[in-house]
Write a structure and sequence with these properties.
about 325 residues; mainly alpha; two-stranded antiparallel sheet; globular
């Protein structure tokens, strides 16, 4: 009696004829081929690449454009009443009420927004994937404990938690012996906690389904341990949903950071942040340039991430074979 053992499907391979030859394309090549057909996603990708380059090279760009630093206060740029002035001369996007250049602060604000979004998203995705894999693979009491933990996190009003934590850490030496103080570390912690439960549930649901597949049974039959099955058999098949959700989570985190900074409990002055700039502009609606340009930067960034996420979701759809 012979027994056939199913194998891990591994990466998707597509074989397409090209003239007299046959070309085998890997899953990465298929992804790129599908993504190239989505012009909107490609434009969004280019916009995001340029934005990341601008954030990394912010000091160089500001210097090349001949702009003052983001915290340089130019009293001469204010009007005769000491009020902010609009776009003119060496300040192409105007200045704020302290005489700081808006263009320079928008460029540096991209660095803060992307730093917070990327770090907090990475923490949420790594921890959420780990917890989701453990819950979905082992089930039983492990699944119950992790599920109740995510339920507790979901029960917190995150915005109120952020305000409370930032306010509490502003007293004395901060929280945890001074390890946490109002600013970027607290914002990253709050945003990472808010994204953790959802990614955990997504990965758990996928892992529950995959653990019953034939290739997992085959791996167990040849003596593979739990860690090998999770890392080498389950995790590669979870890459697609994780990538898609990550592209959704990043713009959400950018908006979350902007919301906290807008309320004054996020990134602290004088560090430039788009949300903080919008919060300052709200106090004087007549300074339209102070609200318009950081608002446009926030809008374009979030829209580009969302459009790229839609394109990746279509490109990673297993039903599309061409």
């Amino acid at each position: 009696m012979s027994t056939s053992i199913a194998a891990d499907p591994g990466p998707e391979i597509s074989v397409v004829p090209e003239g007299d030859s046959t070309i085998a394309r890997s899953q990465r090549q298929l992804l790129w081929a599908r993504l190239k057909r989505d012009k909107v996603a490609l434009v969004s990708l280019v916009v995001l690449v340029l934005l990341i380059i601008a954030a990394i090279a912010a000091p160089l760009i500001v210097d090349v454009l001949g702009l003052p630093g983001p915290n340089v206060q130019d009293g001469a740029a204010l009007d005769s009443f000491g009020q902010a002035t609009g776009p003119a001369g060496v300040h192409p996007l105007g200045v704020d009420g302290l005489g700081r250049d808006i263009a320079s602060r928008v460029i540096y604000g991209a660095r803060v927004s992307l730093e917070v979004a990327f770090i907090s998203t990475a923490i949420s995705v790594v921890l959420g994937t780990l917890l989701g894999l453990l819950a979905g693979y082992f089930r039983g009491w492990v699944d119950a404990a992790i599920s109740r933990f995510t339920d507790v996190l979901l029960s917190f009003p995150i915005l109120m938690l952020g305000i409370g934590l930032a306010s509490a850490c502003a007293i004395g030496k901060g929280c945890f012996g001074g390890a946490l103080k109002p600013g970027i570390p607290v914002v990253i912690l709050i945003i990472a906690v808010s994204g953790l439960p959802v990614i955990t549930r997504i990965v758990r649901g996928q892992a529950l389904s995959l653990r019953e597949k034939e290739f997992v049974e085959a791996a167990r039959a040849v003596g593979a341990g739990h860690r090998r099955i999770m890392l080498w058999h389950l995790l590669p098949n979870l890459i697609a949903p994780i990538v898609v959700y990550t592209t959704v989570l990043v713009p959400q985190n950018i908006l979350f950071e902007a919301s906290l900074s807008f309320l004054g409990v996020g990134v602290q002055p004088p560090t430039a942040s788009w949300g903080q700039m919008l919060g300052d502009a709200a106090s004087d609606p007549t300074q339209w340039w102070y609200m318009l340009f950081p608002g446009l930067a926030l809008l374009i960034t979030v829209l580009a991430f969302n459009l790229l996420g839609d394109g990746l979701q279509d490109a990673l759809n297993p039903r599309k074979r061409k």
